[in-house]
Design brief:
The structure is a single chain. This protein is of the alpha+beta class. The chain has one domain: Peptide deformylase (Peptide Deformylase, Alpha-Beta Complex), CATH 3.90.45.10. It is built from three helices and seven strands; from the N terminus they run αβββββββαα. The strands form two sheets. Strands 1-2-3-6-7 form a five-stranded antiparallel β-sheet. Strands 4-5 form a two-stranded antiparallel sheet. The mean pLDDT is 96. Bound molecules: zinc ion. Zinc ion (ZN) binds next to helix 2. The site of zinc ion has 4 residues, from helix 2.
Length: 172
């Protein structure tokens, strides 16, 4: 397994719409293993393949608490089948938008169909943090970041600060 570099905004690759996976094979499982290792190292609770530069519809997540054993989740070709009318705000962050946390309003429950690590068809009925996280990650597959849900003013302020931080680290 390997820790992969995570792409941070602003970057045109994060705007790309990811392509469906045709087959869950060993190469794809290797990608998912690497993505999980990258996510745990960051540390984070979710990661989409495009965040490591791979435009495939693949997501990994782990919402277990520190004192629990790891509970890695793998989603290949996830599709939202249903969302609740009830919406609520949650504070979100993103490994591609480091150090910024903002409230985003999303449906509180969602049903997702997907293929698992072995390519088997699964359905997830998600609520709470799980629902927030999977919807956030699925946005990545469409080239959408959580800051795209904020006001233009707020988004531009964050992107300006991220650009500045990138320049500083590049010249360091
Ligand atoms: Zn994210």
């Amino acid at each position: 397994m390997a820790v992969l570099p995570i792409i941070t905004a602003p970057d045109p690759r994060l705007k790309v719409r990811s392509e469906p996976v045709s087959k869950v094979d060993d190469d794809l499982r290797k990608l998912m293993d690497d993505m999980l290792e990258t996510m745990y190292a960051a540390p984070g609770i979710g990661l989409a393949a495009i965040q490591v530069g791979v435009p495939k519809r693949v997501i990994v997540m782990d919402l277990s608490h520190d004192e629990q054993p790891p509970q890695p989740l793998h989603f290949v070709n996830p599709e939202i089948k249903w969302t609740s009318d009830d919406k609520g705000p949650y504070e979100e962050g993103c490994l591609s938008v480091p150090e910024f946390y903002e409230e985003v309003e999303r449906p509180l429950k969602a049903r997702i169909d997907y293929l698992d690590y072995n390519g088997a068809q699964q359905t997830l009925d998600a609520e709470g943090m799980t629902a927030v996280c999977i919807q956030h990650e699925m946005d990545h597959l469409e080239g959408i970041l959580f800051i795209d849900h904020l006001s233009r003013l707020k988004r531009q302020m964050i992107l300006k600060k991220l650009t500045k931080a990138k320049k500083l680290s590049a010249s360091a």
